[in-house]
Amino acid sequence: MVGNDTEAWVPLEKAMRSEIWLTEILDDLEQRSYWGYHATGAAASEPTALAALALLAHRRFSAANRALGWLAKTQSDQG
Length: 79
Description:
The chain is mostly helical. It has three helices and no strands.
């Protein structure tokens, strides 16, 4: 190995930090009752759909179902 042993841990530490960041974001999405373009904004279809996809991808099914339910409830006859 070139360099010292601590250099080998840098990618692992970065991965761990990104995992923590992702978990925090998913926890926040999971706790919401609506999803908008910003934290205090009104609910909107696009961010709700994106939140549902993220939650589904990370097996947060209950929260994803809430988002999908909101999308189904707010769906208009015209799309």
